[in-house]
Amino acid sequence: MARALKIAVTVIVYALMLGAVLSLWNNDAPSFIYVAF
Amino acid sequence: MLFLETWFWQFAALVIPLYWLCPRALKIYWLLVVSAVFQYHFAGPAGMAPILVLAVLTYVAALVPLPARGPSLATVVVIALVGALTFYKYSEFLLKSATGVIATARVAVPAWVDGWKSPAIPLGISFFTFEFLHYLYEVRMRGREPIRNPVHFSVFAFFFPTLAAGPIKRFPDFVPQLSALGNPGADVVWGGIARVIRGLFKKVCIADLVVEYVKVFERASVMNGPVVIALAVAQGMRIYYDFAGYSDIAIGLAQLLNLRVPENFARPYFSTSLQEFWRRWHISLSTWIRDYIYIPLGGNRAHQVANLLAAMILCGLWHGAAWHFAVWGMYHGAGLAAEGTVRRLRPGWFGDGLGPRLLGWATTYSYVTFGWLLFFYPVHRVVDMAKGLLTWPGL
Question: For tag attachment on chain B, is the N or C end more exposed, with fewer CB atoms within 10 Å?
Fold first, then answer.
């Protein structure tokens, strides 16, 4: 039960993180700093 | 843009599942093909030429027997690697600096020197050059067995998740994995996906948001104490979440291919000393600088302060062709040297008690955070900001 709950919470947290990433996705976002190095 | 381009995620969504479906014997060739496609897409043919030429030279230089007399091919290739990096990344900076000095002596500067522009910097040159230098040093100076299989060497050189900005790989850790390529288990796949999502979150939802605050603080009408502190803290958060995000994505993608690459960060802002900070910040670069610059210069054995300064100035300049990067490196070299002296004279200050640890954390965080101003801005602006630190509203 505890394991199932932990998995469910983890999946929800990562789904929310991915949702936030997709909602803030911006094709004009600043490039990664270190790629220019 | 790389990992932020829609093209890249379409590419990843195609090549990773196909890699899993590939027969074991063909996986290595698939990795090589897709890495070449990645490099071609982002760097173009002109950007591919330098890495191709330097990779072939490095591969051959590690294999040919050492001559009885005279310089070895490895020595020539090391000079070529450093020369290529200098030409692409630093030629304009060095010529501009030199013309500045020459102009003070009222000597005419040739027109071609005055108008020199650096060519476009090939994608990832700072990273693959360091991987190739590490490879030649380990083979020629430490007697490690070279990579004989050209496909294995090519995948080490071109591996797409780490090609553009690391983490800087070490061949004794990476190449043996190529002999036993297989599909990752469900736990590893989930770990890789989670790592990629965390990386994207750090970049898109934290670093890029903090950039907006940086812009606000940069436009402040008065650079007083609170504004300078807020700007330095924001820049520190921005660079951490930007690069840790990038590293998470690169490490997560490698994990999805069932390959391990080095870690780059270990909660650096929790460090309680500067020495500890450099063991936790951009680990694949700081260990490279330690192993291939600091220790060969003499390390702790002799002239420790000079070695630290030289290694850290080079570390600073590695980040870009500008004096403020060199000053940032010198600032950290001086900090490390001063901390080493205090550690010898007052070892109790670095104890395990809560007090010393809190004091160490506050000192380290403040020192590192002020340093980010030197990293991001020209020295004269940082001098103005330092003056601004003494100005507090209402005082």
Answer: C
Q: What is the CA radius of gyration of chain B?
A: 23
Taking the alpha carbons at both ends of chain B, their separation in whole angstroms is 45
CA of A7 vs chain B CAs: smallest distance (Å): 11
Apex CA B39: angle with CA B33 and CA B44, to 5°? Answer: 120
What is the Cβ-side half-sphere exposure of residue B282, based on CA atoms within 13 angstroms?
A: 18
Given a cut of 70, the residues of chain B with pLDDT beneath it are 1, 395
Annotate B96-139 with three-state secondary structure. HHHHHHHHHCCCCCCHHHHCCCCCCCCCCHHHHHHHHHHHHHHH
Phi, psi of B289 (to 5 degrees): -60, -40
ipTM entry:
0.91
Q: Which of B259-276 are b and which e, b meaning 16 or more Cβ less than 10 Å from the residue's Cβ?
A: bebbebbeebbebbbbeb
B2, B166, B205: residue with CB nearest A20: B205
Residues of B in contact with A14 (CB under 8 A): 193-194, 197
Sequence length of chain B is 395
CA separation for the pair B195, B249 (Å, rounded)? 6
pTM higher than 0.95 for the full model? no
